[in-house]
Amino acid sequence: MALATSTAPTSSNSGLSTQEFQLFRNLIYKQAGISLSDAKKPLVAGRLSKRLRQLELNSYTEYFRRVQGDGKELQVAIDLLTTNETYFFRESKHFDFLREQILPGAIGRGPFRIWSGACSSGEEPYTIAMVLAEVLGTRPWEIVASDLSSRVLQQAASGLYTMEDCSGIPRDLLRKHCLKGVGQHEGSVLINPALRERINFRQINLNNTLPSLGMFDVVFLRNVMIYFDIETKRQVVQRILPLLKPGGYFMISHSENLNGVSDALKPVRPSIYRKPDA
């Protein structure tokens, strides 16, 4: 999950006052832990203006009142103000490390469990699943994939992507783990059901008390903490740490680090950390 970075200008952009922007800035911080700079004001206006027109509302203040009194509309607003840029095998060194350094030591143990904590539209957990299937095969393994956005979780659970979306999947894995769409799905690719059934997609807000998820051997939390302030980062990592097994690995994006966030995880390589053995 990541903050939206672009928007088409609309005639309603100038209608968002500084006070109204502050209302939505406070809202997205409270709900998602995302800190919006002043420069994001046009983005917020553009993202919400179409929804105002759909609901035939005359101001952002009216929409804010609607959001406060309607849980479903609150989720719509969160979905509008976050976007989910991702792709298969993004930051591939993490998957190389998983394949070459972590999984060989997991053979014979099980079930091997991974949490994709900001899974967006599913490319990350499906990439992980392909790696696990190749190395562990039929040995027990499972993935929990979560995101704040219900919209992208629906897309992820479908396992349906365009051919262009799948350009980052190595050809041999594409043939082995994906089905080519035919008929009305021509030009699309469907992730093999054998992989999809190993992934449990769940809506989880990292800024709230976490549900019961069990323990994990690896946690991926990539490209999300860059939008959190330092205190929110600390709280999020503190919530996750008890779910990571001793000796387990914690992976963040290459643009992130845990400096000043937590000293309970020890760096192994840039963006890869390990929880010490008990």
Distance between the termini: 31 Å
Mean of residue pLDDT? 89
Report the uncertain regions.
2-14
Structural class: alpha/beta
Q: Tell me the number of structural domains.
A: 2
- CATH homologous superfamily designation of the largest domain: Vaccinia Virus protein VP39
Number of strands: 12
Major beta sheet, strand line-up: 8-4-3-9-10-12-11
- The general outline is globular
Radius of gyration: 20 Å
In percent, how much strand structure appears in the residues? Answer: 15-25%
CATH class bucket of the largest domain: Alpha Beta
Q: What percent of the residues sit in helical stretches (DSSP H or I)?
A: 25-40%
Number of separate helices: 10
CATH topology group of the largest domain: Rossmann fold
Sheet of most strands: 7 strands, mixed
What's the SSE pattern? EHHHHEHEHEHEHEEHEEHEEE
Helix and strand layout, with pairings?
Blueprint: E1 2-3, H1 18-32, H2 41-55, H3 60-69, H4 71-81, E2 82-83, H5 93-102, E3 112-116, H6 123-136, E4 141-147, H7 150-158, E5 160-162, H8 171-177, E6 178-180, E7 188-191, H9 193-196, E8 199-203, E9 216-220, H10 230-240, E10 244-251, E11 266-269, E12 272-274
Helix pairs in contact: 3-4
